[in-house]
Design goal:
Aminopeptidase; Alpha-Beta Plaits; 6-stranded mixed sheet; 4-stranded antiparallel sheet; about 30% helix
């Protein structure tokens, strides 16, 4: 049973479904139909307003999972190409989702079709919520799998993590991310009588200065240094003769495995309260953690992936933990996971595109990886 799946044609069919989060727009229908033709058993799993798909071929171990998403970010402005026409021009496939990450899904499905029935199991875990709040997607799918007693042994996430060409970079981890909001509350007053007010702006400026100047760490062998970046400062005051009563700021910390969310939140709280006591203003801090740092330590699985990529492309991939977050942050709790996909230079941009030749190259990489995995599972 070797059904031929044309990766380019499938990528085009997926792109032509305008699946801007949280809408599916029929993208999973397209994918599910192809997977059924190959022999996968499929499950449509809607949670809230998000539709998801889980498909599996085989019922034994080892179990290799490919994870990804069919949802895309909004189109935005500045397109010269039709974002949902999936046109090929001068060897490039254009469309929203071409890089992130419908082409990778198509490449993996084509690769799975080529190898036929595996000596184990192949699955696809596809969500429609990766570009959204990530509440009703991968997290719920993993809970569903756990309730069924299904175990994934290893996973590849098809995010566009490469830099120049498919397979040149392998993400073996990610930094964590915390978003903070700070409010400094003083006493409003007249600018002519500042001694009768308590101005929150200098207090906020001092807090911003101290936090921004602090070096969180120097990084380590696998992670870049943690970073803190302010994203806004605001007092909402257009009046020239009034000292405002509040001043607000927001910032993000991207952190490596030298920190935990609690340690960073406690550090921000401690620094804020010191300044609050010195100034006489009140400072409140709220935070939201969107992911913790994780590392799939180099070992048999990462070596197998690296060796496979090298056998296809002629060069070993660079191991990286840089960039933003992905749904790998959820999958790492159940099995070793790496990210391997196309180059992401145009993702989320106008005229998002990928070379057609790179889709073919990624398909070859995925095919070789599946063959190598089931020939000698990395256990």
């Amino acid at each position: 049973m070797n059904t031929v799946v044309d990766a380019l044609a499938l990528a085009q069919a997926l792109i032509r479904r305008p699946s801007v989060t949280p809408k599916d727009a029929g993208a999973l229908d397209v994918l599910e139909a192809v997977l059924k033709d190959i022999g996968f058993t499929t499950h449509r799993l809607p949670f809230g307003d998000i539709d998801n798909l889980y498909a599996r071929l085989g019922d034994s171990s080892p179990h290799f999972c490919f994870a990804g998403h069919t949802d895309v970010v909004p189109v935005g402005e500045g397109w010269k190409a039709d974002p949902f026409a999936a046109e090929v021009k001068d060897g490039m496939l254009y469309g929203r989702g071409a890089a992130d990450m419908k082409s990778a899904i198509a490449a993996f499905v084509s690769a799975a079709a080529r190898i036929g029935t595996p000596k184990g199991s192949i699955s696809l875990l596809i969500t429609g919520d990766e570009e959204g709040v990530a509440v009703n997607g991968t997290v719920k799918l993993l809970e569903w799998l756990k309730a069924r007693g299904e175990k994934i042994d290893h996973c590849v996430v098809g995010e566009p993590t490469s830099v120049g060409q498919a397979g040149d970079t392998l993400k073996i981890g990610r930094r964590g991310s915390i978003n903070f909001k700070v409010t400094v509350t003083g006493v409003q007053g007249h600018v002519g009588y500042p001694q009768k007010a308590r101005n929150p702006i200098p207090v906020l400026a001092e807090l911003v200065t101290q936090l921004a100047a602090h070096k969180l760490d120097k990084g380590n062998d696998h992670f870049d240094p943690s970073t803190l970046a302010f994203t806004s400062m605001d007092v909402g005051n257009d009046t020239t003769n009034v000292i405002p009563g509040e001043a607000r700021a927001a910032f993000n910390i991207r952190f490596n495995d030298k920190h935990t969310p609690d340690s960073l939140i406690n550090w921000v709280q401690d620094r804020s309260q010191r300044i609050a006591q010195e100034s006489g203003c009140a400072i409140t801090v709220t935070s939201q953690t969107s992911g913790v740092s994780f590392l799939t330590a180099p070992g048999k699985f990462t070596q197998l992936v690296s060796d496979t990529v090298s056998s296809v492309t002629g060069q070993s991939p660079f191991f990286s933990t840089s960039g933003g977050t992905s749904d790998a942050r959820f999958i790492k709790d159940i099995c070793p996971v790496v990210e391997l996909g196309l180059a992401g230079g145009t993702m989320h941009k106008a005229d998002e595109c990928v070379p057609v030749a790179e889709i073919a190259a990624l398909t070859n990489i995925y095919e070789a990886l599946l063959k190598a995995y089931f020939a000698k599972p990395p256990v």
